[in-house]
Amino acid sequence: MTQKQRELLDFIERYIESNGRAPTYLEMMRATEVSCKSLIHYRLDSLINRGFIRRIPAHARGLERTEKPLPGGLSRTQLHQELDRLAAELIIAHEEIARLRSIAPQVSTMESEAA
């Protein structure tokens, strides 16, 4: 996916999330600073052909986001859940490292006194 396609897809996703419907071509043109409707059409076709969005026939603003599987067979939802789980594990590990570092001087002192 090109940077421009990603920019358009991100805008479409945000717009649908905020408004409950897809943006118009004019709104997509303004958001991506494109002055030509055919360029938006070309980018939309590329996103459709790659499975990121699909058209809803006979509907104005008839676009919707699809759950295209990612490499490894994960959906975006599964990927975000896995990333959240890993982030939580990293936070716990970081806290444990900080705890161990705080008691390390005490352990060194105790070892010195025992020797």
UniProtKB/TrEMBL annotation:
**Record SUPFAM superfamilies:** Winged helix' DNA-binding domain (SSF46785)
Q: Name one Pfam family in it.
A: LexA_DNA_bind
- The segment(s) forming the LexA repressor DNA-binding domain are 1-62
What residue ranges are annotated as transmembrane?
none
InterPro entries according to UniProt: LexA_DNA-bd_dom, WH-like_DNA-bd_sf, WH_DNA-bd_sf
Protein name, please? LexA repressor DNA-binding domain-containing protein
Annotated source species: Algimonas porphyrae
